Amino acid sequence: MSHTAHIPSHRKPRRSASKTALRAGVAGGVLSTIAVAGAAGPAQAEPVAQTIEMPTITAGLSTSVAASAQATQAVALDLETQATEDAAAATAAKTAKKAKAEAVRKAEARKKAEAAAEAKAQEAAERASRSAERTTLSASTGSSDSASSSSSSSSSATGSAASVVAFAQSQVGDAYVSGGTGPNSWDCSGLVQAAFRTVGVDLPRVSQSQSTAGTQVSLDNLQPGDILYWGGAGSAYHVGIYVGGGQFVGAQNSSTGVVQKSLDYDPPSGAVRVL
Q1: Confidence (pLDDT) at 144
Q2: Is the full-model pTM beyond 0.70?
Q3: 68 in any annotated domain
Q4: 81, 161, 184, 266: most buried, per Cβ within 10 A?
Q5: What digits encode the pLDDT tens for the residues 23-41?
Q6: Virtual CA dihedral for 170, 230, 261, 127, nearest 10 degrees?
Q7: How far apart are CA 228 and CA 218, in angstroms?
């Protein structure tokens, strides 16, 4: 044993150096070499060198930092996704609210339109009823005149023409119905066709064709039984039958029905003679 082994001043520096080297190895993650001299061996023995490899903590720290960054990124992504979903939900709710309001507005507009249409239809029905009443009154007050004119026109008509005139006059007061062909409701061409069918003449069904079914005649040279038309020949929109005495019979419209009127009431455009 060395004669200085028990002297504290010789042993303390070696122990302090070992601790310093150990701390340096832990903090820096490097390999430290600590030379340990055999304190118990003879003074002549060679010192023993021992290498201690200290663990490197840098790699573990990097992994921990990377994991933390990854977790932070995941949280941020979740937050962004949640924000996107919340925004989409808010937009959808706003759109649904707007669509509901629009549907309510349209429903109210539709109700108003239906109410207006119903009121308009009722007004039209009342107006038609008043017009029909006026027509009835007019027909009753002018019945004597019509009777006299009918007798005079019938007396001037002969043969088949007289039959056509008599049939037409017998329908006065019937209703006007578009497409009507009798026996109690007529449209203009349906009445003319039925009147001529009583004498075996089969006329076309519509006004346009009836206005060219015979020989064109002047309105100054009319005879009972002639077909009167309104509009152009071949494109007429209305027809009637001349019954003599400056009068005609026709299914005018839904307000008047079948009437006998003076030519001045509604002057025709032309006339054709079939008989």
Answers
A1: 41
A2: no
A3: no
A4: 161
A5: 555 444 544 444 444 444 4
A6: 90
A7: 10
